[in-house]
Fold this sequence. Notes:
Layout: H1 2-16, E1 23-24, E2 32-40, E3 46-49, E4 52-55, E5 59-66, E6 71-75, E7 83-87, E8 92-99, E9 138-141, E10 144-148, E11 153-156, E12 161-164, E13 186-187, H2 235-238, H3 256-265, E14 273-278, E15 281-286, E16 315-317, H4 319-327, E17 331-334, E18 338-340, E19 343-345, E20 351-358, E21 363-369, E22 374-381, E23 391-392
Parallel strand pairs: 2-8, 14-16
Antiparallel strand pairs: 1-2, 2-4, 3-5, 5-7, 6-8, 9-10, 10-23, 11-12, 11-13, 14-15, 15-17, 18-19, 20-21, 21-22
Amino acid sequence: MKTIRNIMLLLSALFFFGLTSCGVDDLRDLKVNCTIVGVANHDEMGYVTGGGRYVIGSQVELSAWANTGYYFIRWSDGHRSATRTITVGGDATYVALFSNQADDPNPDMPSVDPEPNPNPGEPSVGGFREDGASNALFSVSASKQVRFSRGNLQFQASTATWRFAENQYDALGSANAAISATNSEWVDLFGWGTSGWNSGATAYEPWSVSTLFAHYYPGGAFTNPLAGPYAEADWAWHNAISNGGNQPHLWRTLTAAEWQYLLRGRANAYAKLGAATVGTVNGMVILPDHFTLPAGLAFQPGFYGRESYDYSRANAYTLDQWAQMEAAGAIFLPAAGERKGTVVRDFGVDGNYWSATNGDNDDARSISFDGEEVESMDDEDRYAGIAVRPVMD
């Protein structure tokens, strides 16, 4: 009876915490299993092997196979290897793109299938609240949703002020080369864990430009994340953000697992992100869990530039059109580049955003994208200055 009671408690907990899409397949070992689906954009052109039910945390191999007369081009999320390995974090679908042309730069992509408006008769929930948090919600685990900030995090050393960029597409680029303890300009590229809180790291100030990996270890150890005893090393958690509620502990930085789930694991994830240009700024669009495409606009998911610098085939929005997408809940991450020491590079080409998670040895975890693909998790030099996009629980 005790065993049965424990099983019922576990199942109740799974339901409470939102693991309703994944499930317990075998009550004897109580392992949570999720469904990984691989599909082709056209069944006559090819097929995918390797999908099924798998335990969370396990690794799964998917392979795309082209039929005679057709060619595998890439996966809809930008990966180009026909065989790929996936770490299971939740139910997910992966679309293999095939074409009748071996060098087709723009194969037929699956279009966004907007989910029904959760508030019939009302416009989509979008835009930002007075505290800078998005009205739209984004799943970062099977049991948690977050709100994104209205823009990337910025810092002015001369006044010790933190703020969000006024617009989602704002990025400061070469201005970051002037970073210093007395700089009166704003910067938006930061080394890992440089919130200004003395975490025990050698380099912990927002203006740190040391290029030594070990200077950025909270508590002096590479194994410490920006969480738990070292949560104050998180830029967004430690600081009062002037146009974001103006008090500490309102915002935080996503973990690596949360970024991974947002970009790969949530329902219909592949159809909710894509390369884009807003005005003249290149970057990536992330759609919320519930999204209704504004009338007269289009959204093409995926990354499909011929080269990493090629955004010419990305979604293109005027500022007025982007205002409509934003009002419907869309988030835009600009390709803000990176800083090494005081050298800024790849502005407008690469988008790099920190997580709060330490990596192996010298590296920390981040997401990285360009016009060609998005890496849902990447290893980044801890001394690199890259962007921070906070969220609110």
